């Protein structure tokens, strides 16, 4: 089974950025832990701050991978293009957020991805990614 995690803008700053919201662990460290929990799954990780690069990666894996876990960061609330990319592919996508977006600013309550995703996991910290992986099992 092949699953790719695609992270959007500012998620490269995990461990440094707003630790009260996102915690103190880097995603790279967490990803190593995640891979050790699921050794039978080929987990891949990609991060970009650039909207078009995220769309290209969704399209690249969108017909071949068994699953995509997508945390588009702030693009969740602004990018019709990413929402359209998710809609255009056949691979199931789980939208993930570390924080509970509904307990934050009102603009974070809108997602252009959710309506095209197979599911949404949010508010469980980095464990949201593990829950998303489990949803594919």
Commentary on this structure:
This protein is an alpha/beta fold and 137 residues long. The protein has a single domain, classed as Rossmann fold, CATH 3.40.50. The protein is 32% helix and 19% strand. It is built from five helices and five strands. The chain has helices at 19-22, 27-37, 51-61, 80-88, 127-135; strands at residues 2-7, 42-47, 67-71, 93-97, 119-122. The chain has a five-stranded parallel beta sheet with strand order 2-1-3-4-5, sandwiched between helices. Helix 4 links the parallel strand 3 and strand 4 (93-97). The model has no long low-confidence stretch (mean pLDDT 93).
Chart the SSEs and their pairings:
Layout: E1 2-7, H1 19-22, H2 27-37, E2 42-47, H3 51-61, E3 67-71, H4 80-88, E4 93-97, E5 119-122, H5 127-135
Parallel strand pairs: 1-2, 1-3, 3-4, 4-5
Helix pairs in contact: 3-4
Brief rundown of the structure:
The chain has helices spanning 19-22, 27-37, 51-61, 80-88, 127-135, and strands at 2-7, 42-47, 67-71, 93-97, 119-122. With 137 residues, the protein is α/β, with parallel strands linked by helices. The protein has a single domain (2-135), classed as Rossmann fold (3-Layer(aba) Sandwich), CATH 3.40.50.9100.
The end-to-end span amounts to: 9 Å
User: In CATH terms, what is the architecture?
Assistant: 3-Layer(aba) Sandwich
Overall mean pLDDT score? 93
Q: List the secondary-structure elements in sequence, H or E.
A: EHHEHEHEEH
Question: What is the domain tally?
Answer: 1
The CATH homologous superfamily: Dehydroquinase, class II
Q: Specify the structural class.
A: alpha/beta
Largest sheet descriptor: 5 strands, parallel
